[in-house]
Amino acid sequence: xxxxxxxxxxxxxxxxxxxxxxxxxxxxxxxxxxxxxxxxxxxxxxxxxxxxxxxxxxxxxxxxxxxxxxxxxxxxxxxxxxxxxxxxxxxxxxxxxxxxxxxxxxxxxxxxxxxxxxxxxxxxxxxxxxxxxxxxx
Length: 137
Hints:
- The protein has 4 helices and 4 strands.
- The protein is α+β, with helices and mostly antiparallel strands.
- It has one domain.
- A 4-stranded mixed beta sheet has the order 2-1-3-4, with helices on both faces.
């Protein structure tokens, strides 16, 4: 995928999920090193990236962190990796790595399964403000 920005990590997220939108806004606010770019899973590019890395988009209700040319992470591991990249107090989330991934993902899946019920859903993906547009692919 040559058209992706160099030296940036791509966060793929559910563009109609209010919880996911809040997470994206949180990451943008705390991304002091300008590490991340964002793509909705529902977008054409989001679908292309999922196909490229071999993730069946129909079976995933997760955030995905894609580090082009290196690796990708999803569910709880993506959250931990994002926290590490944000640094500071957010890197403390890596303490959850002591838990087995299967257990971490059990809780992640429970929240993901109920995210629309608890946080609501948008009719369409958010449109970034002009100043945030550069963060979205």
